[in-house]
Design brief:
The protein is α+β, with helices and mostly antiparallel strands and 680 residues long. It contains 14 helices and 27 strands. Strands 1, 2, 3, 4, 5, 6, 7, 8, 9 and 10 form a ten-stranded antiparallel beta sheet that branches. Strands 11, 20, 21, 22, 23, 24, 25, 26 and 27 form a nine-stranded mixed beta sheet that branches. It has a two-stranded antiparallel ribbon with strand order 12-13. Helix 4 packs across helix 5, helix 7 runs antiparallel to helix 8 (404-422) and helix 9 (443-451) packs antiparallel against helix 10 (458-468). The chain is globular. Residues 1-22 form the signal peptide.
Length: 680
């Protein structure tokens, strides 16, 4: 009997394993995690479906009104009849349609992310300024049963709504028997809920926002042969472009552009690390930038193939910063060694553009959607400062023996001095858009100055934080450098800037205004984060600056907007790694108006986890980190000003430490293992 039970369990195991492998996208290898690293009630917040094959959740009328739940069947009768099938969340992949039909005609399929554009034409993904995406059709030529699966080239990367409509010259009827979607994103994961990080707090809105960013990043991890075709098709859409090496790669958006953009990765990669933990897609995205580096000049492309746009100094530097982020999270020294010579060439290329003033002179003008670029712009100089600082760390991790660490730190110090001398506007209390006379004080440069520590005094940092509030509207921060527009990408830097100097309430306020507005917007995906929108609350991002874009071209699942996901983990929970894979770490929680928070992530060293809870007279802080690691713990001071009692694993700390915490924060040395700190 024992042998029989063992055999049965083994047979069941291999059957389940085979089933899981079979669910991975087409010919990719199921190399992703099989289960979540942190099981718990917070898993209810994960938007990702439980299976790689899903069906719509409900049926809407052609005007968008709810008809019923989708039970697997529906009917179209007569020319022009149509129904809208709502999946309830952002999805993407290939639809299979099973139906019976009478007469002659075709069933049209049209897709949209936003409810605004449901109908017989899909929203725009093929270039925005080209012809319409239109629809695709399943033709039936007489009474019978039909099965239609979208061709691979027509993969629809991101949508929530599927409109089915009937085209016929007669009185044909179509009885829908089944609608199935084969999920195309996160192609190497059989279990789309196998998150390697989590976050849970006393604020349900913040929890939903954190997971909407995480799910967005899943939809942005795509098969490498599903990039947008270039040149763009004039009508319809085609997603058969080769993006890079491997089986999976992180791109900028689910619906479009479906290309590697290293600037977007400046926000997307830290959020990926703390949530889903898919660093393989990150590695492949970075490698493609190194593969297409100009071997003579050292310049990186602005975007990967098949788009392969060139001419951006800022995105060149974002590839370099991205290299640092990937090494910090992975400790993949083989990747660094393979690409180190190219990294050095890239550093020489960009630093050679620093002029006699000590500032970077930008000649590669392409950037994010800001309307003014070039010359001694303050934003690219902030990015160069970050590039030099992170490059100095990389030189140590690469085993450099030529003292590049000191050289690049020295250059960073000189650049910081020049930035504060030439770009600071004393009369306003913020950085100008460039070193010349200007009244523009951009959101991007000022946010980055605090986050990257390029501003030279605490007083200036506080002035910047206060002045950034002047850009706020009820639904987010309007970017002065892109008038009329709200950029969750740049606001992702702003919230981190406020957190960095302890302005916790401001950061949380902006998250709730901007990301809270979108996650609760019934016209959006209600599951992902949007590329951008207008201050009037419509989705025509960038249309105010003369771009010839259909408003439906805007991406509703764009990883560059996922900043709250990393920020809530790094600053509210307070947990971060400070050396490759977390050999060193930091725990510095910020409470704001919350009552509790917990979360964690994984690295090659193991699980990192922390939790804090406020009490009437103090708080408790627990953490679990791998043995052999060491960290810095920053205990927040008590607003009451009283001298607290502080215990670490039941041992009372010395009186001097307790007195310090009464008026300010206290820094402790942390060790690996499980620990609890109680402040009361």
């Amino acid at each position: 009997m024992a042998v029989t039970n063992i055999s049965f369990r083994l047979a069941t195991f291999f059957l389940l394993l085979h089933s899981a492998v079979a669910q991975c996208w087409k010919n990719t290898t199921c190399s992703g995690p099989t289960d979540t690293a942190f099981p718990g009630p917070w898993e209810a917040n994960i938007f990702a479906p439980a299976s790689r094959t899903v069906s719509p959740a409900s049926i809407l009328s052609a005007s968008g009104e709810l008809i019923s739940k989708f039970q697997g069947t529906a009917q179209l009768s007569g020319n022009g009849s149509g129904l809208v099938f709502d999946f309830g969340i952002e999805v993407g992949g290939l639809i299979t349609l099973e139906y019976t039909a009478t007469g002659l005609g075709s069933v049209g399929l049209a897709f949209t992310e936003s409810k605004n554009w449901i109908g017989e034409w899909s929203d725009s993904s093929n270039g925005g300024f080209k012809g319409p995406d239109g629809a695709i059709y399943s033709v039936f030529n007489g009474s019978g049963t039909y099965s239609y699966t979208m061709p691979d080239v027509r993969l629809r990367g991101g949508f929530r709504y599927l409109t089915l409509f009937l085209v016929t010259n007669g009185t044909s009827t179509v009885d829908i028997k089944d609608i199935k979607l084969d999920i195309g994103f996160q192609p190497t994961w059989a279990n789309l809920k196998a998150y390697q990080g989590y976050f849970h707090s006393s604020d349900e809105l913040l929890n939903r926002i954190w997971y909407s960013g995480a799910y967005t990043l899943q939809t942005n991890a795509v098969p490498v042969n599903t990039g947008r075709q270039v040149p763009f098709v004039v009508t319809g859409w085609a997603n058969n472009g080769t993006l890079g090496p491997g089986d999976t790669i992180i791109v900028d958006g689910a619906k479009r552009d479906r290309a590697v953009w290293p600037g977007d990765m400046g926000i997307a990669v830290p959020s990926t690390f703390v949530s889903i933990g898919d660093l393989t897609s990150v590695k492949n995205a970075l490698q493609v930038m190194y593969n297409y580096q100009n071997p003579t000049t050292g310049a990186f492309p602005e975007a990967g193939p098949p788009l392969l746009q060139l001419g951006s100094d800022t995105y060149h530097m974002w590839t370099m910063i991205g290299t640092y982020n990937y090494l910090l999270y992975s400790n993949d020294t083989a990747f660094l060694s393979e690409n180190w010579a190219k990294y050095l060439l890239a550093m020489n290329y960009i630093y050679d553009k620093v002029g006699s003033s000590g500032l970077l002179n930008v000649t590669g003008l392409r950037d994010w959607a800001r309307w003014q670029t070039g010359f001694n712009g303050s934003e690219p100089n902030m990015i160069l400062y970050r590039t030099l600082i992170t490059g100095a760390d990389l030189s140590i991790w690469a085993g450099d023996t030529t003292d590049l660490n000191a050289t690049w730190h020295g250059r960073a110090a000189s650049l910081k001095s020049a930035i504060n001398e030439y770009c600071w506007d004393t009369s306003y209390g913020a950085f100008k858009d460039n070193a010349t006379a200007t009244t523009l004080h951009p959101q991007d440069a000022n946010s980055m100055s605090i986050l990257f520590d390029a501003v030279n005094t605490t007083a200036r940092a506080e002035d910047i934080s206060s002045n950034l509030l002047k850009n706020w509207s009820p639904i987010g921060a309007v970017s002065p450098e892109l008038p009329g527009n709200i950029s969750p990408f740049i606001s992702s830097f702003e919230i981190q800037a406020h957190f960095t100097i302890g302005q916790t309430e401001r950061a949380l306020d902006l998250i709730r205004r901007s990301w809270g507005w979108y996650i609760n917007n019934p016209l959006g995906s209600e599951s992902t984060v949007i590329e951008g929108y207008l201050e009037n609350g419509t989705f025509g991002y960038r249309s105010t600056r003369g771009y010839d874009y259909d408003a439906s071209y805007v991406s509703h699942s764009h990883g560059w907007s996922s900043g709250p996901t990393s920020a809530l983990t790094t600053f509210i929970l307070g947990l971060s790694v400070t050396s490759p894979a977390g050999g060193a770490w930091k725990l510095a929680p910020q409470f704001g108006d919350l009552k509790s928070a917990e979360g964690g992530f994984t690295t090659s060293l193991g699980k990192f986890q922390a939790a804090w809870t406020l009490k009437n007279d103090g708080y408790s802080l627990t953490y679990h980190v791998p043995q052999g690691t060491a960290g810095e713990i920053v205990l927040p001071g008590l607003s009451s000003g009283k001298v607290p009692s502080i215990t670490l694993d039941g041992r009372t700390l010395q009186q001097e430490t307790q007195s310090q915490l009464a008026g300010d924060s206290v820094v402790l040395n942390g060790a690996g293992g499980n620990h609890i700190i109680v402040v009361s």
